[in-house]
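Workshop exercise sheet. Pairs work together: one partner reads the sequence aloud, the other fills in the structure field after running the prediction. Swap roles for the next sheet.
Pair: D.N. / O.F.
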Amino acid sequence: QVQLTESGGGLVQAGGSLRLSCAASGRSFSSDDMGWFRQAPGKEREFVAGISASGMCIKSVDSVKGRFTISRDNAKNTVYLQINRLNPENTAVYYCAVSPKKLYRSRWYTSGAYNYWGQGTQVTVSS
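Structure field:
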């Protein structure tokens, strides 16, 4: 059974950092593009960052560039999201996801392009 398990979330003060992990099991995802999304209270789920299977192509939204870094370790079947200089607006549940097809252009940002999702990990930033 395919499963994605996020970890690393928690309560942190503004300005702090967290490293989120997403461990995949059930099969290898080394050939799949993967992404991180987040959903804040009362808001829709939104794309945060994505990484191609090889790790050579990285996408992220402008609001996190320079602070969020996505990476992956295919040997461990794990994708990471390093989050620095957190602020209260970053409070959300963060989800990792896998796409069954190679992503391009706007497909990266579309939740419907991903077919496997984790349960999410809560990130709460206090001011």
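Discussion prompt: Residues 39 and 56 are 26 Å apart (CA to CA). What would you look at next?
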